[in-house]
Design goal:
Blueprint: E1 13-18, H1 23-38, E2 42-47, H2 77-91, H3 97-106, E3 110-114, H4 115-120, E4 133-135, H5 137-144, E5 149-152
Parallel strand pairs: 1-2, 1-5, 2-3, 3-4
Length: about 150
């Protein structure tokens, strides 16, 4: 059955790939996955490359926003931009990344780390937060074949 012929009540599967370990890199996949499960679907977050730091123990407090272009090269600009973004997030009553990740996991979002990235970064499953799985590229592709939406955020 294709996505165009599914009924609104049919449970779908979605995957979201996060490859950026930044404040603005963390939010899109988390928000989309959390909303997918809240709509009654399954969602898997696949963390790879620098995005794997989001699920690394003790790293969430270190997430920063790096402005694009020459602004990001100015000394201290990343700290200032991070502070400004966190203030905007708070004023908009948006949960911080740690709370959003916890909500997502509690509500059933599957969180997995890329096996190759773990090897490349010389990390083990013990370096990751609790309840994170590990998946290799072949297993991800098998899952992705079942999904009408696979999004790289």
């Amino acid at each position: 059955m294709t996505a165009a012929t599914t009924t609104p009540t049919e449970k779908k599967k979605y995957t979201f790939i996060c490859s950026r370990g930044t404040l603005d890199g963390a939010y899109p996949s988390l928000v989309l996955a959390l909303n997918a499960v809240r709509l009654g679907h399954e969602a898997t977050l696949f963390y790879t490359f620098m995005g794997i730091n989001i699920i690394k123990k003790g790293y969430l407090e270190k997430l920063k926003f790096h402005p694009p272009g020459f602004m990001g090269a100015i000394p201290g600009m990343s700290n200032l931009a991070t502070s400004m973004m966190k203030k905007q997030i708070e004023e908009a009553n948006i949960p911080d990344v740690a709370d959003l990740l916890e909500m997502a996991m509690i509500e059933g979002v599957k969180v997995v780390a890329c096996h190759m990235t773990l090897d490349m970064m010389k990390m083990t499953k013990d370096d990751l937060i609790e309840d994170v799985g590990v998946m290799n590229a072949a297993d991800y592709l098998k899952l992705a074949e079942e999904c009408p939406i696979n999004m790289f955020t």
